[in-house]
Amino acid sequence: MNRITTSTFVGLFLLASGLHTLAQETPDEPAPTALTINHTSPVRLVMARPFTLDAPSVHHWRAERPEFHAGMALVLQVEDRSLIEPRQGFEPVLYVGSETAARLNVGYDSGYLVVLIPADLDAEGAVDLDLSKTPIFFGDPELPERVKAKDARAQQARALEEGVQAPSTAVVETAMQRQVRFADDWELHVWAANLIEAYSPQEVDLVSGLRAPRVGR
Amino acid sequence: MRLAFLPLLACLLMGTQASASDLTLDGQSSALSSLYGSTLTIDVVGNPNLPCSMVVDLVPGPTAVNGVPFPIGFSPAWSIFPLGITSPLGELSKPITLPNDPSTVGLVVYTACVVFDPTATSGLDVSNGVVLSVIGNINNDKVQLAGNTLSDYPHFEHVTAFNEGASIKIGIETSLYPGLAGTTARVYVVKAKNLAQWTADPSLVDVSSGGAETFTFVAGSIQNNILEVDTGTLNGINGTQLGVGYDVVIDVNNDGLFSPGDIIDGNGDETGLYVVHDLTLPGPLAVTEILYSGGVNLAQNTFYPSNISNMGQLPLIVISHGNGHNYQWYDHLGEHMASYGYVVMSHQNNTQPGIETASTTTLTNTDYFLGNLASIQGGALNGHIDASRIVWLGHSRGGEGVARAYDRLFDGTFVPTNYGIGQITLISSIAPTGFLATSSSNPHNVEHYHVWTGAADADVNGCASSNITQTQQIHDRAAQGRSSISLHGVGHGDFHNSSGSVASGPCLVGKPSTHAIMRGYFLPLVKHVIEGNAPAKDYLWRQWERFQPIGAPTSNNCVVVDLQHSEGPIANTFVIDDFQTNSALNMSSSGGPVTTTVANMLSGKPDDGNSNFTNNSADPFNGFTYARANDRARALVFEYNSDTKMTFGILGPDQDFSDFAYLSFRSCQATRHPFTTSALGDTTFSVVLSDTNAVNSRINIGVYGGGLEEPYQRTGCGSGVGWHNEYETIRIRLTDFLNDGSGLDLTSVASVSLYFGPSFGSPEGRLGLDDLKLTLD
Q1: Rounded distance, CA B31 to CA B42, Å?
Q2: Which of the following CATH numbers is that of domain B571-775: 2.60.120.260, 3.90.1300.10, 3.40.50.300, 2.170.150.20?
Q3: DSSP letters along B179-247, please?
Q4: Contact B498/A87, CB-based, under 8 Å?
Q5: Residue A136 domain-assigned (yes or no)
Q6: In Å, how far is B356's CA from the nearest CA of chain A?
Q7: Which of B293, B353, B431 comes nearest A60 by C-beta?
Q8: Does domain B140-276 have CATH number 2.60.40?
Q9: First-to-last C-alpha distance (Å) of chain A
Q10: What is the dihedral of CA A102, A105, A108, A110, to 10 degrees?
């Protein structure tokens, strides 16, 4: 086995440091620091359905890109549609508690969003997410893929400080449906297309796109 | 040499036999051009059995001798030599070989024969005169003939592409072709032949309206040597190819063959001109559209020629949509490109989390597609994809995503299974965002990078307030070929085919016109970059005001199109000044001195210095959105309101411009500056080349159509009217500076100057300038 000499190591270290410095010289665009949205704008829970996945999926909506085997599909009604107006710049990030929500539709025309929230399973195999203790809110504009877990926790803390409240127990009980099992995230998305079709019927292309026949199946 | 030529010609004729009254040289009874060293036939008809001589001079007649008019001048250089005795039928025919001396090229010799006939007045029967022009071998490799008339100097532009129905002319600067002036020749437009075809069959078969034209070329201005060779009848439909090729031949010796001494536009394997059909119309192939999924974020909408099973391997175009958009919203491009023989795959793009995830879906969808051809649509595409030629086209976040995807291939942080970075040939970004840093969204050395901008975009709006919404930064990071199209009045949503324009500003263009432009522009962009299609290139850089696809919405008065085009590889250029590698104002990038009398000149980063477009003298790069903090791009800004100039001296080793085809630069008006808003319209100025003998030649850029466009008259982003600065590429063919016998020596160019002010173009202006260079093509 080749051994790295001290000088080589130092050289590599310096090179790496230099590259790091270069990277620091060209930062990505920061999100706006000024608060431009109303975190307390109502986001109403309409439906919630816990799910499990036989094959794990990846939560692309957080910097750590965690894998998940379970979670909850939610239908949310957004009162202030400007929060979900599609744009190419920074958009307010939707949080469910201290987790970023994966938005499956645009929802601007209907006011309804269908989202997925990764969650753990409890000892009985049930999705471990108590929505009656979990505020649902729009946080600061950012690219969700750059939001780290600690950032999400900070967003939740501030939302709570600003008076955002979790859905009531009654709302959650009304919205909650039985847990469902999917083989993989593709089946989950095809199923979610039904929710989009029901709550956001304007998004015809999105629904048909999610229902595109799977090659080889 | 001129005086020595006649005795030499006389010596060659000595000892031959011949006669007079009617004279022809190679069958021509008035004038002909012949290659030096070539053999001609002298034919004389007169009374039988009489001695005959030829008289020659360098000066034309007529001159009376003893009352007998001779068609030569009888200057001190005149000569006479015997040809022989006419036959019993009164005929004399003799071959003659012209001196095999290149220095005789350009000589014009006036000839006649004299039959010593006792029955004639004064005993002399003088024939008609025949003018013989000695020509040299033409280096046809650089010959340009086909083109269009211009309203001012250089009076003619040589071009490659003509739209179907357009008049086709030829223009030739006779001072560049010694011996051509005075020649009457036939001009043919023939179906293009390659070298092998010309060798096998040099016959000239004209296909233009009215057949071959007869034209007498004259000395002086090129304006007197312009000939319409077709009125717009030539066919431009060529299946999935773009353009039908034709060669133009001046048959100097009128032998009906392409032979030595003839002049051809389209030498060897080159093609002289192309006639192009309406690029906005569908191609000839029926198209099949399929929708399928390979899993989450792998849904795809693919278009391909329905008869692909009978076709070879077709290039692949991958479309990555924008945020809030859908992969089924690009039928206008999918249908169009597939009908011309491309496979177009538009995929589900994961844009909402951000650019990194969007780039991932570009990468993974391309990989999935190429890796699953045996399964998709039952394997209909299997074996029919040319994975060595892949185009990525992205929109907004997806537009940045495709650049980021290439960057990840470049950095090696994503390694696909079924393709590599060398197979990504063209990246095109529609209104790309600018979230990521210089080092992250970077097309590096991709063969060609391209960007679309809608100046009325209400989303990626171009305002100085945010790098994220400035579309041109990625363009200026591209290190090889790069180009752009900027469309006034076009909104963010106009580029896809779902509802909503997402537009702000006056004179909105709307989707139908935008899509017509997209079809007519994207097709030649891909054809040129992917297939090297020659006529396609004309649509990428010639001023839109003068030349655009046939079906372009020219009746829509809101349509304004600005083009940038810079051909790769970069090695094929000589950069005079990019204002980047040398920041000194008095020295160019190429090391030559720069002198100027313009005002407020500054070299710097083309990046608006604050968050708005309000005119502000403290923000000299106001309105520029071509760079951000760590980008390397640089440019020059300056202003003028009187006659003034800027001169770039060329160092000795660089003074030979003759191998290059074009002088090229990009320039723009500076938005909202009083010198810009004082006259709402295109800005023009003049370009002057000066050689080391102080010979100058000057061309106003406006003569080629348009000029530098007034910024889109949109408000917002501060006070005032006018949106971001839009570079336009100006390319001037170097030989245009030689017209009208300018005498400019392109092998020894001492300086390139830009002349501004009322005597040379627009009376005042504040401009940006960049990438002054010479290009091979």
Answers
A1: 13
A2: 2.60.120.260
A3: T-TT-EEEEEEEE---HHHHHH--B----STTSSEEEE--SS-GGGGEEEEESS----EETTEE-EEEE
A4: no
A5: yes
A6: 8
A7: B353
A8: yes
A9: 47
A10: -120
Closest CA to B46 of B27, B19, B81: B19
B530 neighbors B426 (Cβ within 8 angstroms): yes
- What angle separates helix B397-411 from helix B355-371, to the nearest 10 degrees? 70
CA distance B272 to B441: 40
Instruction: Give me the total of CB pairs closer than 8 Å, taking one residue from chain A and one from chain B.
Output: 116
Residue count (chain A): 217
- Rounded to two decimals, what is the model's pTM? 0.90
* Spatial distance between the Cα atoms of B455 and B508, rounded to a whole number of angstroms: 10
Low-confidence ranges of chain B (pLDDT < 50): 1-3, 11-19
Q: How far apart are the first and last CA of chain B?
A: 38
Q: Residues of A with CB below 8 A from B356's CB?
A: 145
| Sign, CA torsion B463/B469/B471/B473 | positive
pLDDT tens string B308-356: 999 999 999 999 999 999 999 999 999 999 999 999 999 999 999 999 9
The 3-state DSSP class for residue B43 equals: strand
Alpha-carbon distance B606 to B619, whole Å? 11
DSSP B409-449: HHHTS---SS--GGGEEEEEEES----S-TTTS--TT-SEE
Interchain contact, A216 vs B375, CB within 8 Å:
yes
Total domains in chain A come to: 1
CATH 3.40.710.10 fits B287-567, yes or no: no
DSSP B724: S
DSSP 8-state class, residue B567: P
A146 contacts in B (CB within 8 Å)? 354
Contacts of A152 in chain B (CB under 8 A): none
Say which residue the tokens 């060659």 belong to.
B12
A90 at interface of B, judged by CB pairs closer than 8 A:
yes
Q: CA B21, CA B86: separation in Å to the nearest integer?
A: 11
Domain definitions of chain B by residue range: 2-135, 140-276, 287-567, 571-775
Chain B residue numbers with beta carbons less than 8 Å from the beta carbon of A115 are none
Distance from the A184 Cα atom to the nearest Cα atom in chain B, whole angstroms: 9
Phi first, then psi, for residue B274 (nearest 5°) are: -130, 140
Residue B364 in contact with partner chain A when CB distance is under 8 A: no
Residue B354 contacts A where some CB pair is shorter than 8 Å:
yes
Q: What is the DSSP string of A149-208?
A: HHHHHHHHHHHHHTT--PPPHHHHHHHB---EEESSHHHHHHHHHHHHHHH-TT-HHHHH
Query: How far is CA A210 from each of CA A214, B290, B326, B348, B387, rounded to the nearest angstrom?
Result: 10, 14, 11, 9, 27
- Which residue is closest to A103 within chain B, CA to CA? B352
Question: Does some domain include residue A24?
Answer: no
| Helices B511-531/B534-541 angle, 10° precision | 140
- What value does the mean pLDDT of chain A take? 88
CA B401 to chain centre: 32
CA distances from B351 to A60, B324, B401, B410, B506 (A): 10, 8, 8, 21, 30
Give the pLDDT confidence score for residue A11 in this predicted structure.
Answer: 41
Question: Does residue A64 sit at the B interface (CB-CB below 8 Å)?
Answer: no
Cβ contacts of A157 within 8 Å, gap of 6 or more? none
Contact B687, B708 (CB under 8 A): no
For residue A33, the model assigns a pLDDT of: 65
Q: What is the ipTM of this complex?
A: 0.89
H or E element at residue A94 = strand A91-96
Tell me which chain B residues have a C-beta less than 8 angstroms from the C-beta of A185: 295-296
Decide which of 2.120.10.10, 2.20.130.20, 1.10.10.10, 3.40.50.720 is the CATH code for B2-135. Answer: 2.20.130.20
